[in-house]
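[job 4471] stage=fold_predict status=RUNNING
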Amino acid sequence: MQLLEIECLGKTLRLEGSMAGWQQLFWDEQCVSQINASSDNESFSHQFALQTEQGELRVALNGSLKWQPFELRFQLSINEEILHENTLNEKDIEQRQSTQDHKQPIKFSLIGMAGLGLKLLKSAKVIKVLFAAGSLAAYSWLFSIEFAIALILCLVFHEYGHIKAMKYFGLKTKGIYLIPFVGGLALSDDKINTRWQDIVISIMGPFFGLILSVTCLIGYWITDLEILAGLAVFNALLNLFNMLPVLPLDGGHILKSIAFSINSKVGLIVCILGAALGVYISYHFGLALLGFLLAIGSIEIFFEYKRRHLSDLLPLNRYAQIVSILWYIITLSGLSAIIWFVGQTGNGALSLPLKILGS
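[job 4471] inference complete, writing structure tokens
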């Protein structure tokens, strides 16, 4: 990942490295220094010479690097004269200006796999309207107009959670798209810089879903309107499905970022176990769409592991790993509790999500 970028003598000095220990220093696009050291070795020193009209310049970049928690101290000097020194932390990496040459893939919720084709059309606002109308018509045909409106409300609220998180990190968003028979997705063209951003963006969809379900449940207690209980429980089931630890679902992205922050082998094992769970669920419930998603997720696992030493994402520190796990468990437990609670009402329709989970 890119650790540092400094303007120096009209050129860009860029330091890249990974938790595996290697570092490379680039003068514009030319690699001028490389270190292959232990990841436990905090100190580093890069030195190279430049030939100019005024003679030879000796450039040195010295400093120390800690990954857990992230802290980069550096000092740039030319001919032993200090030009720049500073200390960077995780917040500095997180707020680094995103570039457009590495576009961030679409953020999937339940379950937008039409994103690749949609990205070609996303600039046209009419596409949003057409897809929304198509979704309303499709769900109305399958169920009823009332259920279709409620389902679209749930999808939009879920996707808004992703959008809200993207905006919190200063990422440019392209809005929410509803895909008939598939679900919804939120789009951003900016790249993320840390796995913490990936965690927050991924989990905020289901977390917003939990907030909506709790709000509807409170409304049901106050008004005794069963439509609110139905909205609460089916929305909870929708978001619970998204919390499965299966790529490319939100839960898969959450656990992938946690596991790969520990080390690449743990990340690979966790992702493979998640895929195995997905295969079982797909077979048990006859979910052909989930099987298709597993194929896409397997490709993502392969490339994530293949590029493990070249990752552009700053890993989670220990504190962030614990917070992420707790946040995941709380969201998962809250959604499950709502399904269980509403399932105890004795209403056959409202008990359906609980019966599905118990089958």
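[job 4471] summary: The chain has two domains: 2-94, 107-358.
[job 4471] exit 0
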